[in-house]
Amino acid sequence: MFRSVSKTGIRPIEIGRKLVRSIDAGRATGADGRTTAPNVFSIHLNENDRSTFGDLEKPLITELVDAAKQYVADEGFSLVGDIAVSLVTDATMKAGKCEVRASVSASSGLSGSASSSLREADRSSAVSPAPAAPPATSIPTAAPSVPVAPVTPPTVATPSIPSVPIPAAAPLDKRAALVLGDGTRVAVKLGVMSIGRSAESSLSLNDTNVSRRHAEIRSRGEGVRSEWFLRDVGSTNGTMLNGVKISGDQKLKNGDALMFGGTSARFEVS
Fold first, then answer.
1. Are 40 and 108 in contact (CB under 8 A)?
2. What's the helix, strand, coil split of the chain in %, to 5?
3. What is the pTM of this model?
């Protein structure tokens, strides 16, 4: 998604990952059960790192807004205002580092930022009143016919059906995540999650012991029946599950320890 800007400065994909993590860290669930995510993001960089973007700063901001929009939509989060992203020059930041500060604001206009309206059209649509019925037309009454005694059908006893208590609704879905060794938490979506050193991977690992295409995590089933399976895709150094090198699909359980080359991770399901 993100274009490479500089081999020495901070990579746009790293900023994108921190932006997504700040959405997860700043989300809040209200009494109505809806989860509201932050919509205003300021990205703090030192002057040299920011200068590497040059004319690409505005396209980068636009891509970050689109990435946040897509993630919020995929997770089903609500927003109180438009998404806004801005880059901030911060002398306290070290070279190659950035910090994403997230907040919630109903009016998200930031100087030098790009914003995109994500408010869903959940306003009640106006319903046109039904047309008034035409006035009744007077119809001449026909001559009365000879009355016929009504036939009463035999009464059939209806068996009583005992009321059955409705069980409480089960959770709609399960959430899975990989927690990396440095504490970074990465959501594992339904479908296929590719893992490798390539920037095109769903989870790109900066580890020379990791192959460009190293492993995959695939989901099966939906809702509470969701399951996740780990597969090595021909990596050089292999993939370990709880200390054992895997071959073929291996079902993942909460708390499993994974190793991709020299990078460790823990699988969690909630």
1. yes
2. 15, 25, 55
3. 0.43
Phi, psi dihedral angles at 59 (to 5 degrees): -60, -35
Q: pLDDT by residue (tens digit) across 145-191?
A: 555 555 555 555 555 545 545 444 444 467 899 988 888 888 988 78
Q: How many residues does the chain have?
A: 270
- 3-class DSSP state of 69: helix
Per DSSP, 75 falls in state H
pLDDT tens digit string along 254-270?
A: 988 899 988 999 999 88
Give the list of residues 6+ apart from residue 20 with CB closer than 8 angstroms, or none. 67, 68, 71, 187
Tokens standing for 86? 């801005």
Query: How many Å is the Cα radius of gyration of the chain?
Result: 29
For 101, what's the count of Cα atoms within 13 Å in the CB-facing half-sphere? Answer: 7
Query: Cα dihedral sign for 227, 232, 237, 241?
Result: positive
Q: List phi, psi (to 5°) of 84.
A: -135, 135
Residue keyed to tokens 């021909």: 234
Report the alpha-carbon distance of residue 177 to residue 270 in Å, rounded.
Answer: 9
Mean of pLDDT over the chain: 78
